[in-house]
Design goal:
- There is one protein chain.
- The protein is mostly helical and 329 residues long.
- The protein has 14 helices and two strands; from the N terminus they run H-H-H-H-H-H-H-H-H-H-H-E-H-E-H-H.
- Helix 1 crosses helix 3.
- The chain is globular, with a radius of gyration of 20 Å.
């Protein structure tokens, strides 16, 4: 059975089932709960890249394909490891020839919900993001045309690209490579977390401490930036974390006002995507909460508040995507 013959109908069926749920009970936190949105089973799908089983299946294979890297041993999954929250759990990414990048690897989970990609927002969508790591010297260090030539050498990939893009005379192209990877990533979502179940009416899905943490999260202003279903506004905010000299969005825009500005990271699955901050220098979730309180809010949280907010953040770990590690040609 094809991976996508299982995934897409499962996503649609689950979404239909969940959509019938309505919050009816009360627990005294209604005003806080109303400030949040449950995570849908699928993100918005662009008209220019409709979601199909064939694209998702091809994207799944390409995500694990190391031969589109210069060394032939690095794939997207090297840094975005499914066993590690689809990140790598090291401070800064290690790429081609052992080079260490400037930034921590962000998770690709729920990335279809983001309105900007990369820490510095240099791409607006997943299609734009997909090819960057392939060509980056510090990551996969692969000439894009050579990557396409390698794929063309396989009859298997010629068939899979033709199935995914039947109207294209030359389906193995950079554009289609990006679209396939983006399609696969749009299925990597983590709905039905304890907090989602709580938002939909299961008031016992999270603990009383987590509810207090939700209230503290709102009352202290964390929700101003960590909003929407993915708990990110996809905007850029200035922060200088210890040990970082990274200029952030300034590298993209050249605007003085963008120095040290970074995209608000998603808080979905944050408990399993450590370490934290743009340079990965913050090891624990408790430290991250304290740092954000000081740097972004100008507040020194007491231990009780840190523990409450941390308990709330743990409820944001959702159900991991149903996928298969592909057998490559």
């Amino acid at each position: 059975m094809k991976m996508t013959q299982k995934i897409l109908p499962s996503i649609i069926a689950s979404a239909a089932l969940i959509s019938t749920s309505t919050v009816v009970a009360e627990d005294g936190f209604e005003d806080y709960r109303a400030r949040f949105e449950a995570l849908p089973y699928l993100p918005p799908i662009p008209e220019s890249n409709s979601l199909s089983e064939e694209k998702v299946e091809l994207g799944n294979m390409l995500f694990f394909e190391p031969r589109i890297s210069s060394s032939g041993v690095i794939s997207c999954a090297t840094c975005h490891n499914p066993a590690l929250g689809w990140a790598d759990r090291i401070p800064r990414a290690v790429g081609h020839d052992g080079q260490v990048g400037e930034r921590n690897t962000p998770t690709v989970l729920n990335s279809g919900f983001f309105e900007a990609q990369f820490w510095d927002g240099r791409e607006p969508d997943l299609e734009g993001q997909a090819l960057g790591p392939i060509e980056a010297d510090v990551e996969m260090a692969m000439d894009l045309e050579m990557a396409l030539e390698r794929l063309t050498d396989f009859d298997f990939y010629q068939e899979k690209f033709a199935e995914a893009y039947p109207d294209d005379e030359d389906p193995i192209s950079a554009d289609n490579l990006a679209k396939a990877l983006a399609s696969f990533q749009r299925t990597l979502n983590t709905p039905n977390s304890p907090f989602d179940r709580y938002l939909r009416g299961d008031l016992s899905a999270i603990s009383d401490q987590a509810k207090d943490g939700m209230a503290a999260f709102v009352n202290n202003g964390c929700i101003a930036c960590h909003s929407g279903p993915a708990l990110t506004d996809s905007r850029f905010h200035a922060i200088q974390v210890p040990g970082s000299t990274d200029l952030g969005r300034y590298v993209v825009t050249g605007e003085e006002s963008d120095k040290y500005r970074f995209k608000t990271p998603t808080l979905r699955n944050v408990a399993v995507t450590y370490p934290y901050m743009n340079n990965g220098a913050t090891e624990t979730l408790e430290q991250a909460v304290a740092t954000m309180g000081e740097e972004m809010l100008g507040r020194e949280f007491d231990d009780a508040t840190i523990n409450d907010i941390t308990a709330f953040l743990h409820t944001l770990t959702g159900e991991m995507p149903d996928f298969e590690i592909p057998a490559l040609p």
